[in-house]
Batch of 4 targets.
Target 1
Amino acid sequence: MARIIVVTSGKGGVGKTTTSASISTGLAKRGHKTVVVDFDVGLRNLDLIMNCERRVVYDFVNVIQGDATLNQALIRDKRVDTLYILPTSQTREKEALTKEGVEKVINELSETFDYIICDSPAGIEHGAQMALYYADEAVVVTNPEVSSVRDSDRILGILQSKSRRAEMGEDPVKEHLLLTRYNPDRVERGEMLSVADVEEILAIPLLGVIPESQVVLNASNQGLPVILETESDAGQAYDDAVARLLGEEREHRFMTNQKKGFFSRMFKGG
Amino acid sequence: MSFLDYFRGKKSGSANVAKERLQIIVAHERGQRDQPDYLPQMQQEILAVIRKYVQISDDMVQVEVDRNDNCSVLELNVTLPER
Ligand SMILES: Nc1ncnc2c1ncn2[C@@H]1O[C@H](COP(=O)(O)OP(=O)(O)OP(=O)(O)O)[C@@H](O)[C@H]1O
Ligand SMILES: [Mg+2]
């Protein structure tokens, strides 16, 4: 039985695809057989972040519609050999995904994979609902900013009412908060919501805090999941998040400004 | 922000405002979320009935369902205009 994890947010552009790529790579690096599925039908970004855009032949929608087998559509990652990517269609509409179609593919993937990571499209409508429907767990990607937090709360509402687990009256989808693009400097200056603020409002357990980092853009330019930049703050923060997802206890890092000098610390009594 | 506040690390930026606004909107939306689907329609109809007698605006009628363990209470709040 695979663990099905949706990476979702409501608001667009907050870091879902970046997160899906890194979490799936992190799980696979630890030896778990992992597949990351792109639910963003019509856009398709995951293949670029995973550096396999030129190897896409068949996609998720082809498999749902019976035009290709799963094995024909799955792309094996060149860096981590327990990692596979199921790319999505660039030409279809989000409505090409149906509960029955998605279920068929998820069930088949469940037979061979330990982890299925679902990269959700933005929004709270059909596409996002298809991505979260079969999830056992949800990583709610949130930026420390009003509209992102509000949308995260709305997506939590959907997880609690419209997921398969909710509809069947099973145990609820396990929720994790992943705060990304965090800027400790700005938080200290009172310009940005803090981790504690967002935790208090959303009231779900914190999986990790990913700092705002130049490295993320550099990595995505090269088609490298940022978790493989093992020296970088963002890479390490994602590695911590993956460890916690697997039940490891790790202290939260990157929540304060590392470079802060002795004097400012002294004056702030910290 | 005063000079001293700065060194005490007291926050005076807009994050506090953001947090307060979020707390209000999120609480409001969570309340809406648990409401039955028929509620907006019912609110419109109640509004129409009251308007036969008194002129009131949309936001002067508030309809809410409060669910407890074994019963639900329909709460109807109508503000009448001053005479
Ligand atoms: N921690 C970070 N630091 C800096 N930039 C980041 C960080 N995380 C994501 N980004 C940048 O934010 C942009 C959006 O990221 P991404 O594509 O992962 O978001 P998304 O939620 O998948 O977007 P969409 O809703 O369009 O699918 C990208 O340019 C990415 O490089
Ligand atoms: Mg995306």
Target 2
Amino acid sequence: MFDIDRWREIFQSINKNRLRSVLSGFTVAFAILLFTLLFGIVSGLSNSFKSAFADDAQNAMFVRVWQTSKPYKGLQTGRTIQLKNDDFNYVKEEYENKIQYQSARIYKNFTLKYKNEANSYSVRAVHPDHQFLEKTIIDEGRYLNEKDLQEKSKVIVIGRLIKADLFGEKPALGKRINMNGSSYLVIGIFSDEGGDNEERLAYIPTTTAQMIYGNNDYISQINLGYNPDLNLDQAISFGNQLERDLRSKLNIHPDDQSALSVRNMAEANKNVGSFMAILYAIVILVGSGTLIAGIIGISNIMIFVIKERTKEFGIRKALGAQPLSIVWMVVQESVFITTIAGYLGLSLGTYLLSLIGDSLEKDYFIKDPSVSTGIVVGATIVLIVSGLIAGYIPAKRAANIKPIEALRAD
Amino acid sequence: MIRIEKLHKSYPIGKESIHVLKGIDLHIKEGEFVSIMGSSGSGKSTLLNIVGLLDIHDEGNYYLNGELIKDMNEKKAAILRNKFLGFVFQSFNLISYKTALENVALPLYYKGVNRKERLEIAMEYLEKVGLKEWANHLPNELSGGQKQRVAIARALVTKPKVVLADEPTGALDSTTTDSVMDLLKDINNEGMTVFVITHEEEVAAQTKRIVRLKDGVIVSDELTKNTNSVSHV
Ligand SMILES: Nc1ncnc2c1ncn2[C@@H]1O[C@H](COP(=O)(O)OP(=O)(O)OP(=O)(O)O)[C@@H](O)[C@H]1O
Ligand SMILES: [Mg+2]
């Protein structure tokens, strides 16, 4: 219920007792400021973690091979493992419904040449799905498609920085560049959030690479995106199963980690997730400690304030104030001060966080620290409730003092 | 207006308790102007506070405006105080951060009168006590006599049936005492019941009836020569 007269009483009381109001507000503002900074910094940490993985798809899995380190079924150690198209197709057929994206990857290093400019670059031969696994952003033209693979077309998608190296400001799309003696048509230019190295790359179709360079069916690595319907645990067990199956298919000892392994983002995500959960738990603990300290602070001040005003309450009662009206007056004043002060603390905190911005990203892994609307709303509710409690308990006591005793107080 | 029968009041002090009022019988009719005298500690303030519903008696009956005061809760007491009673204290008891006008208007706030009307009525009463020019001053900018007149205006603003004054002139010099007493006489002449505690014979002499208290009992109760129409039982 909005009672303009009561608000007038409260404003007068706040205004005429500024020191007291500022003091009680300060505690709360300070508590909320600390709380905001704490939360912001942790969310900054969490942002860093998230962006460390954001370069690739969150559901990415990589099947990679090296050399065996354990003898198995009469086979020697030190045998080099080679993935082939057959393995790629096996995975595709065997796990169809657990896979969202699938691409092979063949690593090459070639000199790319356009007119008088030439440079050596990493070139990856991939499938069209690779775009989603790597989160490649197409700036111009298009990515590789199925038709390119079927026709073993000599087409190339180049990184933004290759384009800059070879073409400068001039258009590159539709031009032909020379790669190790063959001529490739530039069909697309991309960028990538993974940094400069990821933008100094070129992509060509797997089939083209296999035909021209070696005439074999070798692939270096298989990249997968697991079906996003799988939860983290299911995805992890899918990765383990895939690892077992491929080892057995390629005659590798089941525990030979250095011959073939599946790197699974689900595992990393799970680790980061539990780490962040612990961090947030600590923050909530420390944060609520700070808030409680603030609430106790304001309660103490309110107790003092009410003691100081006991006589005034006695006078008001003698003039006809009902106990409840005294309680409300104090509570409303307390809520008002806490809310305003808390809001100031919150704004100052948010402002400081925005000043910090990304300046701590390099050294302290704090990226874009900020507090979410949910936190702000939550903190505001906590403030109002704490103002209520801080005001109510002492006010209730004060309102119950007999007027004659209140009047005698000094 | 006020009827008190065999009223007792004790204050506990540690394990002991002191018996302050020992069976008071008193009847004050509407429109009377009564003073209570007695030595310090005789129980005058105690009696007035009970009459004013600021304190609770232990035994006996108290009727205010015909209503038996019993098991009074704070809320009900507050309503009755606001409706029937006006207080004037020795130490004025003005709220320090409110102006004279706002102090006078405060009882009307608790009565639920809207702000505009409140301030109008309050101004009217300030004018009545001769302090219209001081309306926007804070209490600490006023002299003792002025403060007490503000307090009287505040006591009157709700048009109470009874004005209770505990040594209203106790902190004032003789000139200001006279002006305060003149005000109280005016109020009484308008028909309001006035009940005043005093130490000063000259003050008591200006009322219409003097009740003398000693050790918690009434030792004398007589009309003064000021009495004309109203008589007591
Ligand atoms: N709250 C209290 N607790 C304990 N004793 C009290 C309390 N109030 C009053 N008394 C005692 O009761 C007695 C009467 O007090 P009261 O204030 O009524 O006297 P009084 O006649 O008004 O005196 P004075 O002329 O000094 O104002 C005194 O002995 C006083 O000490
Ligand atoms: Mg007294």
Target 3
Amino acid sequence: MSSVLYKSVVKNFGALNVLRSLDLAVPDHKFLALLGPSGCGKTTALRILAGLDMPSAGKVFIGERDVTRLQPRDRDIAMVFQSYALYPQMTVAENISYPLWIRGTPDIERKVKIGEVAAVLEIGHLLDRRPRQLSGGQRQRVALARAIVRDPAAFLMDEPLSNLDARLRLTMRGEIKRLCQRLGATTIYVTHDQVEALTMADLVAVMHGGELQQMAPPIDIYDRPANRFVATFVGNPPMNILPVTLADNGVRAGGKIVPLERTRFFACRLAEIVEIGLRPEDCSVAQHDAPDVLPGEIYVVEPMGNETLVNVRLDGGNVSVRAGRDFRGAVGENIGVAFDAANACFFNSVGITAVHRVNSNGREK
Amino acid sequence: MQSGTQARKYRLQGAGLDLALPYLMLAPGLMIVLGVLVYPLLDGLKASTRTYRYGSPISDVGLQNYVHLWSDAQFLNSLWVTVKFVALSVSIEAVLGFALALFCLREFRGIRLLRTVLIIPMVITPVVVAIVFRLIYASDAGMLTALSEAMGGGAMQILGNPLNAFIGLVVLDVWEWTPLMFLILLAGLQSLPQEPFEAARVDGAGAWRVFADLTFPMMRPVLAVAIVLRTIDAFGTFDQVFVLTRGGPGEATRLVSIYGYDTAFKFQQTGYAAALFVTIGLVVLALAFSAIRLLRRIDAS
Ligand SMILES: Nc1ncnc2c1ncn2[C@@H]1O[C@H](COP(=O)(O)OP(=O)(O)OP(=O)(O)O)[C@@H](O)[C@H]1O
Ligand SMILES: [Mg+2]
């Protein structure tokens, strides 16, 4: 059993309140991505779980054990630090094998293990060097190797891929995911890269300003964001938000009335929604005078190769639309934005998602 | 044409000043160094090849003074006493200073005050320290005797007994110079990166392993520099011994500095004393160089 549980964890640094009552439960063997903007308290949460910082209030459990007051070494965890934290006077091989050496693992076994992880992380040729003779990305991989060389109850990784180049990041992403699945340890993976979070994790927890915004499987984070912050933080380009007012059987957005299905309309009216949220891929470009489209004019056109992002200025704000790769249009040209209202979600005045989208494949939960 | 030459002239003048400026600014310092360091050094070297009578040179004897040193039992004994003194004091100071520095690294209430108090001995004039220790050690009215009598014992013989006097001198040196070690090592410890220590704790290392595997190896250069500094300094210890024991009883605390002083001013053998100090200087220099070489080898491996 190595589930991880944060129970009303609070952390203050003097007067600065960094974590306000964090409740987070990671089931056994799951890969959780902790996602959030810089400075939201991800590292702090991880350090509390590792035992490097004491929470100001609340408790931390690993498995059934209350570890809040335990020393880091009694918690059976392995951690990758954001700043690598390699041992400067040891060689790469010594660095990697240190956790094993401390536990008295026999030499032969250690050698084999070093070889294995070095091969996975492509650092076999660096084993005799010292940390200061390595590049940032190489150091990061050594730090990663030092963590995965052991078989702990939980892995804590603080942005372990942030310094790698794009190609290596892609391969490492896959390798880490495979490795964690094979080892079966509970993993908490801190990142501010949403692609990493969505592609690698079983569960994604989105944090903002020291508070947990939502924890759900990646697909739900994407399709059913709990609030406006999650909706706009996850997704690239981010979800479009437009102010709306209620009208007869629908909402008024972008200067047009968008009709809504009856139950959704009543739900919207009940929740006193003020904004509509639309993913760029749920919108499409159309003739500006076609029926049921929001009229606007082209603001920016960004060809991406496989598709074209069109930013359209509407009455009430700009929206991004994903168009085909052969889209052609000039800035300032009139254009319409079409969408299916069933794919839209609606936020109330405090930013909570009051009405979710009806999924296109009909799996309304 | 005229203005062109003019411009070149100015440029050259400007460049001339630019070139000369560093030397001009160095000049005063350089003069002082030449005057108070280099000249006496050369003069000392010259003196070491002569014999003196009543303070004036009477003949050139070449390297004879140097050769004579190595058959002088008193010199050899003073060298042995010095080596014992330096080795004992500096190693105790290093261990004690390191322990104190490790202790004072932690943050708790009153730590600033403690750190300040700990470095006080270092800033007291050595002669004053020696006088205070004489008062402590004195066999008639000293603090130790008073303490011993209060507990029912007899008078404490410190400065009258060869072994006790030597130990007393080491204790004085440790008291006075542990703070320097402490200060250097504390600064070293405070400049170490924090993350490796956190990583080691997570990796499962206890306090002892953290010290042996991280703190000590990372501190080795600082420790070595501190030890070399203190060793060089301890070889020259003079004032404290001069005030405390004058080298006695017998030759028990007669360091080379005291012996050199005696030959120069008591026995008026200026040339011989100069040769003695030049030799000691070379020994210390060799020591320092080999220590630094060793350090570099450790660093490179
Ligand atoms: N030791 C400390 N003392 C005071 N404030 C701190 C301390 N450590 C962190 N903070 C503050 O706590 C907040 C959260 O820091 P934290 O390191 O957890 O952010 P993060 O989410 O990991 O950010 P990033 O993605 O940039 O690494 C920040 O505002 C930071 O300034
Ligand atoms: Mg961080």
Target 4
Amino acid sequence: MASQTQTRWPDVLDPIEVASRAFLDSHQEASLAAMSRHAFYNAPLINEVWKKAGVSPDDIKSTADFKEKVPFITKDDIRDFRDRNGDPSGGMSVRIPGQTVSIGTTSGTTGDPTPVPNWRRMPSEESYSRDFWHIGARPGDHICHIMFTFRGGHRRRASQEMGLCEIAFSMSPTEIPRLIEASKIYRPVTMSIFPGPLILAMEHYFEKTGEDPVDVFKSYKGAVFGGEPLGERLKNLTKSWGLEVFETTSLGDVAGATHCRMHDGFHAYEDLAFIEAVDPVTAEPVPDGEVGELVVTTLVDRLSPLVRYRTGDLVIIDRTPCGCGRTHAKFNLLGRATDQILVEGRSILPREIMGLVENESETRASLFQIVRTGREMDELKLRIGYNKERMTGPDKELHDRLHGKIKEAIGVPLVVELVDEQELLKLGPPHKIPRVTKS
Amino acid sequence: MTLPRPDVIGSYTVDGKMHFYGSRRTELDRAGVSMVRTLKSFNFDPGSVITNVSLTPEVVQFAPFEYAVQILGMYGTNADLSPFDAGRVESLSRQFDPVAMIGIGKETLEGLEMLGHDAKTVFRGRTVWARPDAYEAVKVLPEVDARRCVIAGPVLLLECARGKLHLDSREWIAESENDQLLLTSRQVRSEPLQRLATGVAAQVSEEACACGNHDMVIELL
Ligand SMILES: [Zn+2]
Ligand SMILES: [Zn+2]
């Protein structure tokens, strides 16, 4: 690590981003022991699960001990604890007077939102600060902050603590004209979070107004794309606007994880989280480079001390140094383990279907669902929403075109059902629908 | 004098048009310290939960309220002001039993109805600061301590326990011209305002409120 000079800004916000593997490993080993102790004594669910497994914090003296002895927890464990004890946090969060400044909640697409207590600076604020810096935001710059309030309200100070000025927007297509106006007034350098529905709304706006997107976005060094995976069409569209898009995802609720300029996986900051992959059925460890379920342990969040939390995300982890100069692990995200279906032994996830659906003009919003009655299925059943106004021929023509292209790409028995996309949008929240349905 | 650079650019709306409005974080914190004077008139227990229903671009108006909640040792939770997030308002109400909810608007009430939730159950037993477009509907709900919150330019006017709407008078000079509230900033701000026409129909009262907060009282018309 070179020391910081005053003549130019360093390439990374925190020097730990380029620390050696040996440094990271020893840092993690110490943090795992400390967080294990904290979680055991403060998070009731961890305490219960560990006692049941006959494990105590004194048993965790090394990373090897941790991997060998510490029991896993799952979302179901958290919900079960919540229902048994009437504790909204499911035994996983700690309110510490003087430290807890607010209680955020998860999106709650599948039931009651889960509380996420916030302290002054959340791990996700730390990780996104590093990502913004990586994209090129520097003190004195403006950035667009597009967010719901429920993640923790108006409390956040991370951007100003880097010397950035945030321009605040709702996560809503109605904000597009203001986003464009702000882009021309303040010439911001990043935009986050910029999800698919907003990109689509923006495309519509540019088509309608004839405004030049290249001019609108000329000051941007990047946009952080979150939500669902970014398909080829939207990737090419944003590229044609001169926007470099950096995909982001949640690192199992313990931090954010974002693409770097190599665009070859999400970086998990290993000083913030310890990550592992396990077989989704047997929970046996899976080596780096192979598909497994992502398991995360926070190394810093004392208010939500998730330890060995099985995220349900199928990933491939890569711990080799990255071309961007950072040494921390990256992972590729394949989809949710519970969304996966196997047809004739072939694994299929919504992510793969998305790119195929959005390429057709009538279905460019990529609103579709996989009908999943079990993990193993005899055929792939898709319900696909089309935009009435974009239809140019009979339904059957669109049906046959989609069927042909998807069948060719996936190569398994296929049933396609077409519906008006307004029907699927009713399954909301706005413009985000469950990708898998039981019927 | 060069103006200090803002940390955050929020917005205010007058006559249906949104304007960008920048603030430094110290301005928001200062407004929060002032808002404590109104909020403490309710004597909520430390450790209580208060739900804040707002939008991200309302940061300049609602960050001070959140800070006041923190200063008094309470916990804030948040939901968006939208029909779609009304389900979260219901869930937060049921899960956390908040002593109060602020920023309830027409969108929230519409969303609750759309999602099949009963507003009576969601708000019963709580102090509810409603926006002008939801106040009358909240006021008639049984066992609800209905209060007003009114956005006037970059300021959130908050009703105290004695039923008066307070304005932070260390920060703002208030005037009423043709029955409209005008605001002029008094302190160093990133974007000083000179007689901003807020679009709020109100008069300024000289009365010292019995709640203990001697900040100016604004009477809606
Ligand atoms: Zn990289
Ligand atoms: Zn008063």
